[in-house]
Amino acid sequence: xxxxxxxxxENLEQxxxxxxxxxxxxxxxxxxxxVVRATFLQMKDAVETTPTADLRIYLNKIATITKNYxxxxxxxxxxxxxxxxxxxxxxLAQ
Length: 94
Prior knowledge:
Blueprint: H1 4-26, H2 32-49, H3 56-65, H4 77-93
């Protein structure tokens, strides 16, 4: 079984890019994406500083902000991919 920290490390750069793009493109209509981006950056800093850090607090916050990764009707493919990557990390962390 894959460790959620390893999964996040493997997908960190992609998530960094995706959260930045999605917040920029959709943030005006979905301001919660700016909070998702900020929380992701905190999580990224934590995992880069301490690879064994407990990241569940960040994942739980993102799950709450996104209403358990519920996509809005205007979500693009990158938006969906971002939520899917984060959701898998959350599931692995349980």
